[in-house]
UniProtKB/TrEMBL annotation:
InterPro entries: DUF7074, DUF7075. Keywords: Membrane, Transmembrane, Transmembrane helix. PANTHER family: EXPRESSED PROTEIN, OS07G0633600 PROTEIN. The chain crosses the membrane at residues 24-50. It comes from the Eukaryota. Residues 271-563 form the DUF7075 domain. Pfam families: DUF7074, DUF7075. This is O-fucosyltransferase family protein. One of its GO terms (cellular component) is Golgi apparatus. Residues 129-213 form the DUF7074 domain. It comes from Solanum verrucosum.
Amino acid sequence: MLGRPSLLLSRSGSFRPENLGQNAMAMIGNLCFTIFVVGVLVFTIIAATYQPEDPLFHPSAKITNFLTSKSNATFRADDSVVRTGEDFLGVNQTAFTTFINLNDVDVPENAGSGGVTENNLDCSGKIDDPVDCTDPDVFHLLMRAAIEKFKDIHFYRFGKPVRGSNDSSCHMAWRFRPKEGKTAAFYKDYRSFVVSRSENCTLDVVSIGDYHSGGNARKRKRKNRAGSDRTLGKLDEGFEKVTPKTEGEPIALPVVGEAVNDSLPVVESESSFGNGKYLIYSGGGDRCKSMSHYLWSFMCALGEAQYLNRTLIMDLSICLSKIYTSSGVDEEGKDFRFYFDFEHLKDSASVLDQVQFWSDWDQWHKKDRLSLHLVEDFRITPMKLSGVQDTLITRKFGSVEPDNYWYRVCEGETESVVQRPWHLVWKSRRLMDIVSAISSRLNWDYDSVHVVRGEKAGNREMWPHLAEDTSPEALLSSLQDKIDDGRNLYIATNEADTSFFDPLKDKYSTHFLHEYKDLWDDKSEWYAETAKLNNGNPVEFDGYMRASVDTEVFFRGKKQVETFNDLTRDCKDGINTCTSSS
């Protein structure tokens, strides 16, 4: 007991005035340490549970992240249609709000009921005289007729009319988009107008021809430009390439229906060839793989070329995988330009065809002492090659898969440095013109359903419900709350026998791809132009082209019903593979 007073005194001594400062510093230190520990804990929890935003809401600069790099070389290919740059354009939709209404077209003072009366013309004996298509009043008459007839599209620009196929015909072009368009693209149509003149000189539009019937109003192909001239300028006929901005950088939009100039770029002179820097990928195991595999690897090569500020030497001859061919075997000799928009690529990036390149190289490399740098290990990163001064860098790939896949170059640390430039690769505008033609025949006023059957419907182990869920009876039940009766219904499907869907005709006006085969048969524009690319030999409208057109027509429907999102509980890639996005 005698010790307690002294203990209390010793404890109370810590509260003496001379000790308060020391105690306060200790308390502050303990408080700061506590805050630090709590902060570390909160940061750890956030880092462990954070999920990034959906990359679909990011613009095109973020496309590579969406497409998910496979750093362990387990890239899984499939037979679906690949997405290309125009599918990911994060275009501000205000770029499409300014369109031409009927009220924007002047009504001439001499306009009659439903037509235009010509000035200072005695019509006696001149009713059959040629119509002056260049007359501004005739121009306004044609514009008003087009706007009144095609109510499901927005018009953005009209080209000046020209004389048609006879004295009473005018051809006129316009740029448009469907009113409910979901793709960032413009379309061009040019049609024939039949104009009649009455006894009192009144002009009226009697009829408007089919899609692309006004060939005289079509813009001529531009002359091929040198590879070094890639400026996107104005087009003919007053049409301009619209370039809405994404993240401060102008991104050109596809214009489907323009004449395509995908001739090969050429080097202007020996000096310009010698001053250039080039990159080529040689060999490898990517050939004859799926289109998604091919494009994933090609975009890696293109991305490295852009990172190194070099011209990519590309092989325009590709091998089409047997999963797309009617013969069931891989087919060599297909042209890149059959499937992709080479004009946009060569206008937007520095590329050369390898046949032309090697011809120039053989001619000039010894004379000009052009040097070559060979790289045989894909683990040598583009960053390590940035200081190479040789004229040509050749990446040579071996025969052992998967280490001989081109896309291996863009894995690991390179993944965060070299970006795949997806905005440079678009789908073939010739194929997209077929899509536009089909949509136009349906007046851009249709709904669509994608019905996957084929091998998947027969594999009940992986897709146990798909066959029943896509039967005609099940389709009628699923669609009754989604598609109104009597609507045009485009059915995109891999079902070979389309009569399978006959029961749907009682409620809908059904349409299938094969109904439009005149757009690619031997009398079509597509057939003639692809044959020119193929040294005069006809080109088969192969399985990949069919799937691509079928899918794109589906995407342009006003209402779209998907198989694995709307019709069945099965997962797209088989049992137990469903994700939140599928």
